[in-house]
Amino acid sequence: xxxxxxxxxxxxxxxxxxxxxxxxxxxxxxxxxxxxxxxxxxxxxxxxxxxxxxxxxxxxxxxxxxxxxxxxxxxxxxxxxxxxxxxxxxxxxxxxxxxxxxxxxxxxxxxxxxxxxxxxxxxxxxxxxxxxxxxxxxxxxxxxxxxxxxxxxxxxxxxxxxxxxxxxxxxxxxxxxxxxxxxxxxxxxxxxxxxxxxxxxxxxxxxxxxxxxxxxxxxxxxxxxxxxxxxxxxxxxxxxxxxxxxxxxxxxxxxxxxxxxxxxxxxxxxxxxxxxxxxxxxxxxxxxxxxxxxxxxxxxxxxxxxxxxxxxxxxxxxxxxxxxxxxxxxxxxxx
Length: 335
Ligand SMILES: Cc1cc2nc3c(=O)[nH]c(=O)nc-3n(C[C@H](O)[C@H](O)[C@H](O)COP(=O)(O)OP(=O)(O)OC[C@H]3O[C@@H](n4cnc5c(N)ncnc54)[C@H](O)[C@@H]3O)c2cc1C
Ligand code: SF4
Description:
globular; five-stranded antiparallel beta sheet; alpha+beta; about 30% helix; four-stranded antiparallel beta sheet; Uridine Diphospho-n-acetylenolpyruvylglucosamine Reductase, domain 2; Uridine Diphospho-n-acetylenolpyruvylglucosamine Reductase, domain 3; binds flavin-adenine dinucleotide; binds iron/sulfur cluster
């Protein structure tokens, strides 16, 4: 179980000043190294003594990883750019407002000032049992404490559960999927660029991680192509309190409407499963249809097909149905 202490345990703190330096250190130390970005997730694990790395590679001195650049086809956001930096960037606000909106509702202003976009998409699950150090599947054990008749599972998954029913807690992840972003990863074999939706994995692939990063890997940047710049965006997050709270569910969509019909759309939800879910069946079904309430209604129903509630989270099914409905048809006629 977790022993909450105010002080850090001892570890070797390495502070590279370049991407190449950081990559070299991570390769050298492999499984013994922990990547430190803003520290908001990392510090909990370290102080609770639940993760005990020998070495911490602090990225705060790597200027190359910070900032937002315009490219020939969109923008590139350095992994160490703060969430506040993302929210306030003029090009993101003007062309990719979906991401600015999603980042603006992450936690609190202080957390957004310190937390980074790379850390936000790489953060770990927030399941109570796992964070408290219970020896569950995700922690290497052989039981799930949340998926029992009396387990605390109000925040947990309704889709794609596989032994573990924890969810991905990131608000920016579904917005990045809707914007068709690409994640740039430095690996032992060189640079790898993956679609946003492929960065995240469920327990069917690996129950101990929420993303594809292997020991030694470094997320360096996130690229957003111009294809969806200025599209009709919708982001909505539902949480218990309007400050400092993770999503119970969120939805992000980018839609191009032509002549009243849906010409192109990308839509994703998060906190419904261990990875953010791109709703490709919904995208396919609504393409070419009028962007109206009847289409939205159908999309909402389709989105929750196959959803299975746990003891205390059945509310997530109508919630997800309505979020998808609103993402496509607007809020005015939602029930
Ligand atoms: C009280 C509280 C409330 C919060 N509420 C929300 C919320 O409502 N919505 C939401 O989306 N988030 C929320 N968060 C998460 C927060 O926004 C941070 O974004 C997140 O915890 C991690 O960002 P960080 O920069 O602090 O990264 P860190 O905590 O340092 O890192 C997080 C993880 O990512 C890995 N990592 C970080 N950067 C890289 C990289 N470049 N390459 C490889 N691995 C990397 C680290 O090794 C670590 O495993 C909350 C956090 C707290 C503490
Ligand atoms: S939901 Fe996942 S993280 Fe939570 S107790 Fe079950 S196995 Fe562990």
